[in-house]
Design brief:
The structure is a homodimer of 264-residue chains. With 264 residues, the first copy, chain A, is α/β, with parallel strands linked by helices. Helix content of chain A is 42%, strand content 13%. Chain A has 11 helices and 7 strands. A 7-stranded mixed sheet of chain A has the order 3-4-2-5-1-6-7, with helices on both faces. Chain A is globular, with a radius of gyration of 17 Å. The relative contact order of chain A is 0.19. At the A-B interface, helix 2, helix 4, helix 7, helix 8 and helix 9 of A face helix 2, helix 4, helix 7, helix 8 and helix 9 of B. Bound molecules: adenosine-5'-triphosphate (ATP) (2 copies) and magnesium ion (2 copies). One adenosine-5'-triphosphate sits at the interface of chains A and B.
Chain lengths: 264, 264
């Protein structure tokens, strides 16, 4: 039974897409403990109309035929939207700008927040993990992702505006758990573009650990230009520069996600 | 007659709020040419439910009584929402999380995109500039800001995902100009967190200048931790650390905005 992970934070530019792409790729490539053999099957769902996660794995705007919009509001099965990527075991359900219309079109629907969960139900057993990249908002697309998910990974920067938004996000996750999806848990906060040299970093990490305790991942992702370069080649860091600090930190992060999930 | 500037980009975390706050503060503090004497009157409108621009000038969540939501959907006049800040000549119309509801509530309204323009019309003459901070989306709030504005400042990072979103934003601005607001112009793209040392920076700036030509500001904003620290003190950089490279680059930027506008 695949575990569904939403990567969400309404604060913009905190590393959601970079985390969704590189976590999904590292999970697919990593064999986990010896007994599991090589690789897992992982699906990356791009649920942001910007389509960054899609282009991050090689499906830029021009290369996408069917997208998540067609499954969400058209009459296409979700399975028909799924495409392979250059990483063995990693598949993607790409997004295009059509998805901008979904926010308006879904509003009139009953049970509009449960749409994605219903679409994923028939295919969740085919994957070990499903990773959903969310847009920078708390609107209907993010609510759909939270309603479909088992856990939420919350990327954030060690900066004030990121900290300010955390309370609103945690409230939203609690509300979704109470009303729409009782199994939803916060897997953890992931510090991205982490710079240990500034006071701000230490002030923010102390404050977050004080509030969220164990729900903070031990792995931190350093600022590393190779992570910002990889998307222009349509590849996850693992394929672009596997020995970079950025790529290695996401491999370590994937291991921690598996370890934590195993204990769940 | 005040000039209305929207600071917009659906890509998250590119420096919209940091630009809106520090541009507004620098415009208010700067006297411009000798003839103008000291200071101008500037209004900062926080149109993002995250409320970051509000807390960036000292109005964090607990300190806000009336917000833009009350004017937009309640029966409060916009003038009653406006508050002074610590910068002489700078005023703010703050936002709270209530604004999240506006996206849904405005949908059923006729001429929903023109709501903000109608609210600002009675007060625009009281200010030299009105600067609007937008959320990271192309939804109803950003469309309202673009419909009310004379010009758009587009902050962006010199990174691939930022570049990818530019075309969608320019298309949206063109659409608003054709259908909703014929005077809307792109004042320019502003490179934020600019790091001259990476190849990526030069690849992206070349590509943007090739497409947008003169609609790129000469001023670039360097990455400077003092800009990220200032919001935790509720102050624009001008009050937090006026001699920092970050603050000085925004003073220079404000001068360029005035110079370009004068030629308009
Ligand atoms: N650890 C890192 N080191 C260096 N650059 C990074 C890192 N993580 C992300 N980036 C870059 O920072 C920018 C923001 O990251 P990203 O787009 O993943 O954030 P996001 O939260 O998905 O943004 P949005 O809110 O727009 O969806 C991108 O240009 C990305 O390439
Ligand atoms: N020039 C700079 N140097 C260093 N840090 C910066 C700079 N500009 C912005 N920042 C920091 O980077 C983060 C993103 O900036 P900001 O919040 O202004 O972007 P935004 O586009 O308004 O984000 P959102 O899409 O969430 O509204 C913030 O933590 C901010 O303090
Ligand atoms: Mg993203
Ligand atoms: Mg902002």
């Amino acid at each position: 039974m695949g575990r569904i992970i939403a990567v969400a934070n309404q604060k913009g530019g905190v590393g959601k897409t970079t985390t969704a792409v590189n976590l999904a790729a590292s999970l697919a490539a990593g064999g986990g403990s010896a007994g599991e053999g090589g690789g897992r099957r992982v699906l990356l769902v791009d649920f942001d109309p910007q389509g960054n996660a899609s282009s991050g794995v090689g499906y830029s705007r021009g290369k996408v035929e069917l997208s998540v919009y067609d499954a969400l509001l058209g009459d296409v099965a979700f399975a028909d939207v799924i495409r392979p990527t250059e990483v063995r075991g990693l598949f993607v359900a790409p997004a295009t700008a059509d998805l901008y219309a979904a926010e308006l079109e879904l509003i009139a629907e009953a049970e509009r927040e449960g749409r994605l969960a219903r679409l994923l139900a028939p295919i969740v057993d085919r994957f070990d993990y499903i990773v959903i990249d969310c847009p920078p908002s708390l609107g209907i697309l993010t609510l759909n992702a939270l309603t479909a998910a088992d856990g939420v990974v919350v990327p954030m920067l060690c900066e004030y505006y990121s900290l300010e938004g955390l309370a609103a996000l945690v409230d939203t996750i609690e509300r979704v758990r109470r009303v729409l999806n009782p199994r939803l848990a916060i897997d953890g906060v992931l510090f991205c573009m982490y710079d240990p040299r500034t006071n701000l970093t230490h002030q923010v990490t102390e404050e977050v650990r004080a509030h969220l305790g164990a729900r903070v991942f031990e792995t931190v992702i350093p600022r590393n230009v190779r992570l910002a370069e990889a998307p222009s080649h349509g590849k996850p860091a693992l394929l672009y520069d596997a020995s970079s600090r950025g790529s290695m930190s996401y491999v370590q992060f994937a291991d921690e996600v598996v370890r934590r999930g195993a204990g769940a």
